[in-house]
Amino acid sequence: MTTTRGRVLLIEDEEILRTSLSMFLNKSGFEVVEAEDEAGALSRLQEDRFNLIITDLFLADGSGFGIMKYLQDYCQEAKCIVITGHASLDSAIRALRKGAFDYLLKPFEYDELKAAVDRAIQRQSEERLIKKLDYQQLTKAYGLTKKELEITKVVISEGLSNADISESMGISKNTVKVHLRNIFKKVGVESKTALTTMLLSGSSK
Prior knowledge:
Blueprint: E1 6-11, H1 15-27, E2 30-35, H2 38-47, E3 52-56, E4 58-59, E5 62-63, H3 64-74, E6 79-84, H4 89-97, E7 102-105, H5 110-132, H6 135-142, H7 146-158, H8 162-169, H9 173-187, H10 192-200
Parallel strand pairs: 1-2, 1-3, 3-6, 6-7
Antiparallel strand pairs: 4-5
């Protein structure tokens, strides 16, 4: 039995482009289901599950925003990449706020799409691992304090900057730095990226 990298729902009303993208995604190891409008896409989403949704932002009977709304309500684990030939800063910001993982402007190179798809699948894999993490076991294994554990959770799940962590947790940036330094020392890493990689890889003492 052939193993695929995942299932993709491709929503594009331009038939030639849709066929071309479908062939490219198939060659990249994905099982692809096509839809040409919002109604068809929503019908397929109700019938089956997909790892990735690639949708044009403007469709004949609706928009990619309707697709993203459905994903937020019923398929939060799926990643959505928006493609459009009618881009604007407002539409890009709105798409990202509605949950789009990435946003590509037509015409784009296949390498750009491949990079976006690879990032989406990688992030989806990381999120599955995050859900499986045993934080109590991490606390015991590395002797993390309650606050250090809270910061570790934020770093792994959201990948925020020190300033963002400071704001979200209501503590100073210097305090964040001190906690991170202690966490790195206990876990045996030197950066937030290394911390995330190590813990998601299942490494432990």
